[in-house]
Amino acid sequence: MAKINILLVDDHDIVRDGICALLEDEIGFEIIAEAQNGQEAVDICTEREEEIDFIIMDISMPDMNGIEATRQIKEAHPEIKILALTMLDEEQHIRQMIKAGASGYILKNSNRSVLIDAITAILDGKHYFSDDATRSVMMDLVKSPTQKKSGDPAQLTDREKEVLELIVQEHTNAEIAEKLYISPRTVDAHRRNLLQKTGAQNTAGLVTYAIKHELVDLN
């Protein structure tokens, strides 16, 4: 595997030191730069665009938070992958980071294997959400015991729901086509319809929609 150059963004020295220690023996990953806030991260990506492959991004930081930094970086450098690593597990922060362009969201109490799994999945073109982050979204959606299920305002067809569930399970278009006995072109059409009906901007948005409207079984 080609070396992956990582930018680490967190305003606490001890956190950055800890992540560096977790990754120092991981072959193929190298932290080549560090930033203490979002503005520094944006500046580094501008100055070293050709070098940065991946960013581990905190959210709550001075000068510029991780959500705004992610938005600016993804607009200017869409090829850079971003993983949110934070203590903030509220649904609003998860949704805001996904909307800004992050491909994954894990909490700082995650262990090393979760961090490695998240980086690897995102580099493979997938999205990754830790169990804690997913649970936080679900708990926020059902926090009121009398709250009714939100339903499916997009009125998806049964086939679209099948495709959506397989997307949430991180299957590729080719794998979905094989499982449903349809062509990859048909899967592409269903994916476009899903984006249009749900108003999602990308796969992460589809995942968020599916969780919010309880269209998939996360067990």
Please tell me about this protein's structure.
With 219 residues, the chain is of the alpha/beta class. It has two domains: 4-141, Response regulator (Rossmann fold, 3-Layer(aba) Sandwich); 158-212, Arc Repressor Mutant, subunit A. Helix content is 50%, strand content 13%. The protein contains ten helices and six strands, in the order E-H-E-H-E-H-E-H-E-H-E-H-H-H-H-H. It has a six-stranded parallel beta sheet with strand order 2-1-3-4-5-6, sandwiched between helices. Helix 3 (66-76) links the parallel strand 3 (54-57) and strand 4 (81-86). Helix 3 runs parallel beside helix 4 (91-100) and helix 7 (158-168) packs across helix 10. The longest helix has 15 residues, at 184-198.
Indicate the topology.
Layout: E1 4-9, H1 13-23, E2 29-35, H2 38-47, E3 54-57, H3 66-76, E4 81-86, H4 91-100, E5 104-107, H5 112-123, E6 128-129, H6 131-141, H7 158-168, H8 173-180, H9 184-198, H10 203-212
Parallel strand pairs: 1-2, 1-3, 3-4, 4-5, 5-6
